[in-house]
Amino acid sequence: MKWLFALLLAVLIFGGAAWFGYNLFFKQEIAVQKEQRGEIQVTPRPDISLPEFQAAAKLRQEGKLPEARAALIAFIQKYPSGSHVEEAKDLLGDINIEILLSRTPSPEKTEYIVKPGDVLQRVANHVKSTPELIMRMNNLNGTMLHIGERLLISHPEFSLLVQRKPKLILLLDHGAFFKQYHIQELKLSPKQPPKVVAKVAETMAFHDGRRVGFGTKEFALSTRWIRLSAPGYVIYSLPDGAHPTIGQPPPPTGLGLAASDVEELSSLVNNRTAVTIID
What we know:
Radius of gyration: 29 Å
Strand content: 15-25%
Number of helices: 7
Helix content: 25-40%
Low-confidence stretches: 18-22
Structural class: alpha+beta
CATH superfamily of the largest domain: L,D-transpeptidase catalytic domain-like
Shape: globular
Number of domains: 3
């Protein structure tokens, strides 16, 4: 009888070990293979961040721009790797631009009263802005200023962070995220240093194949480029819904963005704008 008891004990021990090993290793492996073949439907995890993103988007739809901006900033900080973080950044950038170019009160805006002898370029230099940004913020139809006119002025300190691999250009204000632009076309030399420090060299406008200057009647219909001080880096315009045709052919190397994005970005930067380029 002792041998029978020993045999049963051995069966229990080795059988239990085999059952445990099957469930721990082989059963999991079989389940993974079935999942990869589509034989098992994976139950999606609930998206806990979606209601907060939708609430922030609704604030924007209701015209509550400062509240929407605060909600999106909090959302991005709370869900930095969430499934809606890129949408949130795109929406936050649009709201930041809306606030910047509107009469919506914000701490970064001040009022400037035009004095005798003031011209738009001089005012822009004095307040460290750009003439086009001042025109867009104040809905000016031309560059002529009038004594006593009250201009709304913003004092951003913009810089650019070009990210080559994710194909993004981040516009930063005092080092913080302001807006991101998606690079649609990337044409660069294959040998690129891991990091390039540069600045905006100039903003350019083309109409009918020739350069045109700010304030001219052709400027409003022009194609915009932004040339950086790093060799081979030109931010150039590609056709989009608002600009279905582009008269100026693209440069041999550079970063292609939607024409509306380049037009907007060129109004925000100047030759003091710092640029960092990374992978």
